[in-house]
Amino acid sequence: MTYEAFYEPAGGGRFGSTPATAGPWDPAAQHAGPPSALLARALAGHDPVDGQLLTRVSVDILRPVPVAELTLRVRTVRAGRRITLVEGVAEAGGQEVLHARGWRVLAPAEPTPATADDGPPVPGPDAGTEPEHWAAAHSAGYLSAMQWRFVSGAFVEPGPARVWVRPRIPLLPGEPVGPAELALLVADSGSGVSARLDLARWLFVNVDLTVTLHRPPRGEWLLLDSATTIGPHGSGVAASRLADADGTVGGAVQTLVVAPR
């Protein structure tokens, strides 16, 4: 089934979650990408300052986010012309489910000297392969609402992966997905596409997501160049390079909790 958007605005900072937000493990719980992107949208638009760009967003996932109405609250922590720190909270059913903080940085009138892109060249989306299936995952929600083109690795194979991703639907009806929103919408999939363990035997969930951008991504496709490292004491880290057709735009890091199912 196709939905018009991930969310429907309900007024007063409230948003109805459509089934397109559902994650791969439970149709009643959201993938963290859409609500993180919704918070990024709120952080970027709260008390806006002309010329400021949202360059870093850190999200803490307090508990599973239900496919239900979300209420967002946002406040400015540190206001400034050059930099602004904003934070937001997403609530569902009277419980806080996500906390987020974002730094906005003023883009100067004259471009700053940019360093060369150190990332390896990657074939574009047209050279990638769409997955034929999603193993035992719930695929009718977020997985189907996004388009996937794997250049290397695959969701059903362990190890690092490089995959181009773009949303088939917007966050909100009739509203284009902004650059920072796209980064948050895609980046939370880094740990999934680069899984190192058997999904049937092991649970590995991220408790946070931090995305840093040195420039806004351009276009509708974003590359996840992801790798997961797991330690012996029940924790791990998934790190992703984020890139568009013109090169690297930033990176993402997720802290993982690992346990047998």
Automatic annotation (TrEMBL):
Residues 22-104 form the Acyl-CoA thioesterase-like N-terminal HotDog domain. It comes from the Bacteria. Residues 13-33, 110-131 are annotated as: Disordered. InterPro entries: ACOT8-like_C, Acyl-CoA_hotdog, HotDog_dom_sf, TesB_ACOT8-like_N. Residues 110-119 have a biased composition (Low complexity). Pfam families: 4HBT_3, 4HBT_3C. Residues 121-258 form the Acyl-CoA thioesterase-like C-terminal domain. Signal peptide: none annotated. This is Thioesterase family protein.
